[in-house]
Design a protein that fits this description.
The protein is mostly helical. The protein has two domains: about 35 residues, no CATH class; about 25 residues. The protein contains two helices and no strands.
Length: about 70
């Protein structure tokens, strides 16, 4: 999830619009931190899928060399 889908509890507007001080502060914080510590905004399911593909590739390579 990215911050453009978040709704502010203070003003009920999208956080990405920054309509109130709470929105602007949270938008700034999220932009500085970055979701998932700089992993390009990948969601957890995408990370799990990527991990599964990598494990399958390693298993295939191990099987071919054996």
């Amino acid at each position: 999830m990215t911050y453009d889908r978040l709704v502010c509890a203070n003003c009920a507007a999208p956080v990405s619009e920054g309509r109130c001080p709470v929105c602007r502060a949270n938008r700034e914080r999220l932009q500085q931190e970055g979701f998932f510590s700089g992993l390009g905004g990948l969601n957890p399911m995408a990370l799990i899928a990527l991990l599964a593909v990598l494990i399958a590739a390693v298993a295939l390579l191990a099987h071919q060399t054996a």
